[in-house]
Amino acid sequence: MLKQQIEQDLIVALKSRDENTVSTLKMLKSAIKNKEIELIKELDEEAVVKMIMSEVKKRKDSITQFENGNRIDLADKERAEIGVLEKYLPEMLSDEEIKKIIYDIINEETIEKNPSNFGKLMKLVMERASGKVDGNRVSVILKEELK
Q1: In terms of pTM, does the model score above 0.85?
Q2: Among 97, 91, 102, 105, residue whose Cα is nearest residue 144
Q3: Are residues 75 and 36 in the same domain?
Q4: H or E segment at 136?
Q5: Domain boundary among 41, 64, 86
Q6: Taking a C-beta distance cutoff of 8 angstroms, is the pair 101, 129 a contact?
Q7: pLDDT per residue over 85-108, tens digit each?
Q8: Cα separation of 10 and 26, whole Å?
Q9: Same domain, 7 and 77
Q10: Looking at residue 27, which CATH number applies to its domain?
């Protein structure tokens, strides 16, 4: 369903001559198609969401690089692309919801609240909240909670 929405939005963007949206959605469609070819199967909704999150992360990294290189024009272009991509992501979990997941996992798995368990907890939180959280945010919150 998400792939069909992207296709429909691309057609609308083409008709309205919205160059930024057209180029971003064409890139996204291409990335999804390449992943499907690589895996030799059609991507489900969750995989498409992960793909979009990956594309957003790439652009955030690029923004940092462009700003360091004093290329504000390119950083702004990346920000505009992020704006287009984020329309297709589900609502992200709040910090409180992430903390609740962390404590639920600690209680269910009887994992000691200890910084040495960071990797184990990070993996479990990302699995449980798949597609609804940014890994960097989870990392910051988890480090804070394990102090």
Answers
A1: no
A2: 102
A3: yes
A4: helix 135-145
A5: 86
A6: yes
A7: 999 998 889 999 999 999 899 888
A8: 7
A9: yes
A10: 1.10.1510.10
